[in-house]
Amino acid sequence: MLAGSVLVFLPLHLIPALHPISWILGVLQVAVAALAVWLILRRYQRDQARIDQLGAELGAEREKMRTITRELGEFRPLADEASQDVQASRRIVEQLSSAEGLIPWLRVRTDLTSWAPEQLDPLEEFLHANRQLSFEDSAVHTAFMELYRAAQQLRDWFSLEGSRHGDDGWELLPADQREGGWREFTEAKARGEELADTLLSARAGFERVALERGTLPV
Fold first, then answer.
1. 196: Cβ–Cβ under 8 A, 6 or more apart, which residues?
2. How far apart are CA 106 and CA 182, in angstroms?
3. Quick one: 84 exposed, middle or buried, by C-beta within 10 A (0-12, 13-18, 19+)?
4. 171 in helix, strand or coil?
5. Radius of gyration of the chain from Cα atoms?
6. Domain layout of the chain by residue ranges
7. Is 150 exposed, middle or buried, given 0-12, 13-18 or 19+ CB atoms closer than 10 A?
8. Could you tell me the keywords of this UniProt record (predicted)?
9. pTM to 2 decimals?
């Protein structure tokens, strides 16, 4: 526009008849030039404002992406932890299976006066395999710790109160080998049965909580 105004007004200055009003033409030329500069400046300001707006929008979108990335980064460990809880819950109910082994034997026992060493293998395996286990879900972890303590106490009772019987069996230390005689024998037997019931209750409690919390899929 500025170049166009020069092309328009320059020939007018060359016309002799217009020389008396050349100053008016000069003023008009300056005004047109000023208008052209103002329009160019306005265009630049609008373009710059648009660029700034686009830059701000781009920055906002980048911040959203960073937020999403952080959230995904936080979610993945949670998902991994949930998966670990599921795997651990499944392993525990398999180690202390309700279908075979230690748990069914404790359920149908008449007493705890004799046992075979292999009957206690699941108990030892459970304690050894899970000695450092923890659950992300606090309710499941609490139920697990109750189960683990119950298993420890029963294992310790077998170790403390048992004695070899024959070539391949164990029995509750007989009354005639105890200082307290039958009274001590009866108390030890009752204590063992109480610990066995506690383990069965803790095992059922763990499975119930794990099912409720979703770490043990049906």
1. 106, 109, 112, 154
2. 23
3. middle
4. strand
5. 44
6. 2-77, 96-213
7. buried
8. Membrane, Transmembrane, Transmembrane helix
9. 0.63
**What is the maximum alpha-carbon separation in the chain?**
147
Report CA-CA distances (Å) from 106 to 91, 115, 160: 20, 11, 18
Residuewise pLDDT in 10s, the chain (218 residues):
545 454 554 554 555 554 555 546 555 656 666 666 667 767 767 767 676 676 556 556 656 665 665 554 444 444 445 689 999 999 999 999 999 999 999 998 877 899 988 999 999 999 999 999 999 999 999 999 999 999 999 999 999 999 887 677 899 999 999 999 999 999 999 999 999 999 999 999 999 999 999 999 87
Structure tokens at 198: 């506690």
Integer Cα distance of 98 and 101 in angstroms: 8
Only one residue has tokens 């069996």, namely: 169
Dihedral Cα 155, 157, 158, 162, nearest 10 deg:
160
Cα dihedral angle (168, 193, 89, 84), rounded to 10 degrees? -80
User: Which residues, 6+ apart, have CB-to-CB distance to 72 below 8 Å?
Assistant: none
